Amino acid sequence: MKHETIPGATSAAVRSRLSAEGTEPVKSPYLQIENLWKTFGDFAALKGISLSIQEGEFVCFLGPSGCGKTTLLRAVAGLDLQTRGTVHQGGKDISVLPPSQRDYGIVFQSYALFPNLTIEKNVAFGLENTRRSKAEIAQRVAELLDLVGLASQARKYPAQLSGGQQQRIALARAMAISPGLLLLDEPLSALDAKVRVHLRHEIKNLQRKLGVTTIMVTHDQEEALAMADRIVVMNHGVIEQVGTPTEVYREPASLFVADFIGETNQFPAKVLADGRVSLTGTELACAPHDCAAGTPVTAVIRPVDVIPHSDGARSPGAPDVVATRENLIEVDVREMEFLGGFWRTRLASPRFGDGLLVADFSINAVRRLDIAEGSAMSVELPRDRVLVFPERAA
Description:
The chain is α+β, with helices and mostly antiparallel strands and 394 residues long. It folds into two domains: 171 residues, Rossmann fold, CATH 3.40.50.300; 128 residues, CATH 2.40.50.100. Helix content is 24%, strand content 32%. It is built from ten helices and 22 strands. Strand 4 and strand 5 form a beta hairpin. Keywords: ATP-binding, Cell inner membrane, Cell membrane, Membrane, Nucleotide-binding, Translocase, Transport.
């Protein structure tokens, strides 16, 4: 049975908050994946994957090439059945059902439009076997083309449209039968950067309007952070972390997640007592962690979390009073790279040994503090942004 979607449906994030506040009963997951394995001979592409997705949620499977994200999507779609494990959708066990009996629409990276059919015929393709009348099909096609902003292109052929327009037609075709689940397999990777940014906003707005449960596979961290309600970070066939974009960026569960999502500075360190680490002989206060004292670790801080100060690090509003701050380090500015919205700087200090600290400073901060190559300044590494992880296994 197909699930008709409701414009303006409450987002999954809002529903989760309401449930947490006790104002709405906790709902069963719409999609439940349990202990999913996929092997190819001796190689395990998926290793015991378990995941719950709520109705109306937008979830991104994120990870490097070969991590298993596309294999997991294909298992959900029934295009490549799992070796063992189960998949339930809407309370129904679909683990061994063929794709034709599953309730989803799918959009591929290559669009997969029929070149010999007009745009309206492409969108209508999935509707022709639903026993709807020609008038109903025509009305549904018109609604979808209007929804994706391409009503005027109905009589054209795919080759006459841009890549972004073709992807919107592929999305309209996937939504034609009002599926309960929308699957997106790297739908934006073939587009140029500006079109990709524009289209990701369109897809997210459309998903919110329709309230359809959506899974998108991507290797683009920025794409996942911008679009997802939750991100599933995968590596070598396992899930490293599941969380909101803010959680996986600000509170990475592992060194892999910290390294894969966004930019990081990484320094070898050793755990000291009382919430501190030793970095090339320098003590730094750090965020809470589970590593025992004396353990070799990797200390991580993102370039965006480095706070610049003028030489002497005086408090804002009190220029004659030297601030008392943790993790305040005097540095020399070795390199500066202008990246449009900010300056990426590389900073040297004996406290970093032979390494350089990369810091991203706003244009206003660079102007206000007169930061320039060859100048001296102070930077602060906030305690709660100095993250500590066990050393990566060799």
